[in-house]
Write a structure and sequence with these properties.
Elements (H helix, E strand, L loop, with lengths): L10 H35 L17 E4 L8 H4 L3 E8 L3 E10 L2 E12 L6 E10 L9 E8 L2 E8 L12 E4 L5 E2 L6 E7 L8 H4 L2 H5 L4 E8 L1
Antiparallel strand pairs: 1-2, 1-9, 2-5, 3-4, 3-11, 5-6, 6-7, 8-10, 10-11
Length: 227
């Protein structure tokens, strides 16, 4: 071959290169489509962006989870007396109850607050609460709760005297829900338990065993149920 002459590609070689180029484009497009679909599925599952109608963003439908509270100088003083949960329930009704015991004798159940869906959708909310001391410095005396249910905000104040709590000085607090869980109809999800024997427990079920109740002059257990 003389200098300056170019090598002419055969029709088969040209066709082969076009096929390889087309294959690369198809593979790239397919990978990009998979990424987009996976991203949209994630956003849909987590109720982010335009998939969020009334649900709590960042939480899948059918789940309940505790709300993480930043422990700074202010909240560190309140964290033992406060808490929060978020949920996206498919059920149409949710109720927060308070059970009261004197030693191992169940005395009373009272409704703290509750919500009923007025349509075909379920119930979604972020709920926060804090307990306040009485004038004599003993606690807890009053429960303050704020919630946003399906976009509507509400506040309540609940007096623990409604169940018979006598405001003990030897108070201990056990927290309930500490991980994300599936919502099951009729199940009790314990939020917070107050005992009058100075003992707190790693699990709320331990605080409600007979021997634990027998060791505490008073016990209050707050929980939420979905129906």
């Amino acid at each position: 071959m003389k200098k300056g002459e170019s090598i002419m590609k055969s029709d088969n070689e040209v066709l082969k290169e076009k096929k390889q180029h087309t294959k690369k484009i198809v593979l790239f497009g397919g990978a990009l489509l998979i990424i987009i679909v996976a991203g949209l599925c994630y956003l849909y599952d987590m109720n982010w962006w335009f998939f969020n109608d009334h649900e709590v963003a960042g939480l899948p439908t059918g789940k309940i989870a505790p709300i993480e509270v930043e422990n700074d100088e202010i909240t560190s003083l309140l964290i033992a007396n406060s808490g929060g949960i978020k949920f996206n329930a498919q059920q149409k009704e949710a109720t927060i109850y308070l059970d009261y015991y004197e030693y191992d004798h169940f005395k009373k159940q009272d409704t703290v607050t509750g919500w009923i869906s007025d349509g075909s959708q379920g119930i979604s909310s972020e709920v926060y609460w804090i307990t306040l001391d009485g004038e004599d410095g003993m606690m807890p005396e009053t429960l303050r709760m704020q919630s946003g249910i399906n976009g509507d905000s509400a506040r309540i104040s609940y007096d623990f005297a409604n169940v018979g709590w006598k405001k003990t000085e030897d108070l201990a607090v056990t927290f309930g829900l500490d991980i994300e869980e599936n919502i099951k109809k009729g199940k009790k999800y314990y939020l917070q338990i107050w005992t009058a024997n100075g003992r707190c427990y790693s699990d709320p079920s331990e605080a409600l065993k007979k021997e634990a109740l027998q060791a505490s002059p008073e016990t209050m257990a707050m929980y939420i149920v979905f129906e």
